[in-house]
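S., here's the first fold you wanted:
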Amino acid sequence: SMVGTALCLPQTIGSTTGGMVLYCAKVMGRTPACLLFSEHIDSLAAAGAILSAVWTDDPMPTVDCLGEEFLNYVKDGMTITVDEDGTVTVED
C-alpha cells in the first residue's frame, strides 16, 4: 500500500488518465503522502496533483527536480518531510 508513504519516482510520462487517477485516489483516501520526483513532473500528472488539492481541500505535496542523487539515496523506512516551501528532508 502506498497510502501515507512518500512515492519517489524518476519521472512521469504524460497520460490523459494520470491526473484523474491521482484525483480519484485522493477522493478514495488512497494516495501517497507526497509525490517526489528526481526529474521534471509532466504537466498532466501535475494537473492531477493540483486539481486533487483544489477539489478536496487536502493538498498532496509534490516536488520535482530533486536530482538523481535523491532517488539513489532514499530507501524504504526513511522518514521524509516536505516543508511548505518545497524543502525535502530525508532522515534515516
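And the second, which I think is the more interesting of the pair:
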Amino acid sequence: MKNYRHKTISFTGNGAELLNIFKDKPYVFLLESSLQHKALGRYSFVGFEPFEIVRGSGLGSLSELRKKFARYAHPEKHPLTPFPGGVLGYLGYDLGLELEKINVRRKDDLPVPQVLFGFYNTILTIDHFFKKLHVTSSDKSCRIDNILDIVTEGLSKAQDAFNIPAKGSLRLKSDLSAIQYRKAVQKALSYIREGDIYQVNLAQRFSTGSLSHARDVHAFELYRALRRRSPSSFSSYLDAKDFQIISSSPERFLSKQGKFLQTRPMKGTRPRGRNSMQDKKERKDLLLSAKDKAELLMITDLERNDLGRVCEYGSIKVKNMRTIETYASVFQATSTVEGVVKKGADVF
C-alpha cells in the first residue's frame, strides 16, 4: 500500500478512548500500549472498515492471504508510523499443529476461523512518546479531516462517561471441576516421571452466562476492565463481527526489523507485593528460583531452534539470558533471542 496521505494533531489520550469512539465500526481493532515504554510500548493503533477480508481454516487460507498481500505490499517505511496501513488479524493455534503435521485429537467446538485478516488502508497511530495522533490513508476517498473531527467530537462527548468504572461482575464457570483439574495434574506428573513429556500447558476454559446473556456485555467493557487491572505493552482488541478477541500481554512474541528477527520469551512469574519489602522478597525469590531458571532456559533453547529454521546459520544470538522485568501486577523473567532472516524468506 503506497501513496499515503497523512495528518497529525497533538494528542494526550489513549488507545481505549479512540476505540470507544469507533467501537461499532466493522472489524475495528486496537493494538494498544497501555503500559507505555519507549522501546516496547511507544505506539498504539486503531483501524476499522477493512477493504478486504481473508477468513478461513487451514494452510490454504494462509496461502490465499500471502497472494493477496503481495498485491499491496510496499517496502518503504513511513516517516511517522511503523504501521501506516496493512494487514492485521490472527493465526489460530491449531494452524501450527497442521503446519507441523501433528494430529488434533480434541473436538473443535468453537465456530472460530483459524485464519482471519483484514486489509486496512486507513490507520490512526498514537505516538505516546511525542504525544501525537497520526491519521494515515492510501484510500483516495478517505476524508482524514472528517476522521479527526469525529475523534475531537467523540472525546469531548465521551470523556466523562469513559472515566466512570464499569459496574457489575461476571460469574465465571470452568469447563473442569476442581476434582477433574487435580486428576489432570496428577496425570501430567506421571507422564513427566515416565519420561514421556517434560512440560505441559494444562489449560481450562472459563465461560460466563448463556450466549444470549453474553451479548448483553459489550466486549469493549471487558477490555476496559482488563487494561485497567493489568496495563500492558501489548494489549489488543479485534471485533470480528460474530465474536471478539481481547488480550493483554507483556510478551512480544516476534519482531522483524529489516533483516533482524527477535523473540522475547517469558517464563517465571511472581506477584507484586503490597509494599516495597514484599516486592523485594518476591523479586528475589524469582531471581533465585532454580525451577524458573530451568524453565526459561528450556524455552530460550526452543526459540533458538525455531529461529534457526528461518534465520541464517550461525546468526542466532541470545542477547539477554535472564532479565527480571517489573509490571503493574507481576515480575516476569525474560530472555531475548535474535537472528538474521535467511535471504529470500518473508514474514510468511
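Why I say that: The first strand starts at residue 5 and ends at 10. DSSP finds nine helices and 17 strands in the chain.

Talk tomorrow,
H.
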